[in-house]
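Per reviewer request, we include the raw input and output of the structure prediction for the construct analysed in the revised manuscript.
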Amino acid sequence: MTAGHLAVIDMQRVFADPASPWAAPRYADAAAGVRSLLPAFAGRVTFTRFVAPAKPAGAWRDYYAGWPFALQPPDAGLWQLTDEFADLADAVLDAPAFGKWTPELAARLGPADRLVLAGVSTECCVLSTALAAADAGTEVLVVADACAGADDDSHLKALQIMEMYRPLIRVTGVDAVLAEAGP
């Protein structure tokens, strides 16, 4: 197995809070999967946060016109990692875009590393990150049972779409990733 780097996508309060308009109903399930993966990637984990831009531009203006509650600064409570991950996140990258495949994240991977993705939301930020990383030539594993979507149907459809990108993107599960990682 090639080495890997785990990117934990957007495990933030805005997606965990059932009262949030952006809640991922199975956030707790994804969080359990992430917790299972963390020890196998010790020292090779990056947490990401979706944050609103200070001043939306282009199509983002219309996007935030529909979601005005989200136009808050990066230090606002809704953008914080949930308590269970806040103290575990040694490396955190913020991005005002769905995709988290940034030069900063790319720089955290070695030349032979694969990118292992977990987090929320499967059909948005996970999908956008996976496609951009694959386009850059990085092998991507999406850990289905460590991800959650806006709803079950969207989650499953996104996984099916990503699976169509084999061998660049492969959908897998927590147990398979841990088995490949070895003892």
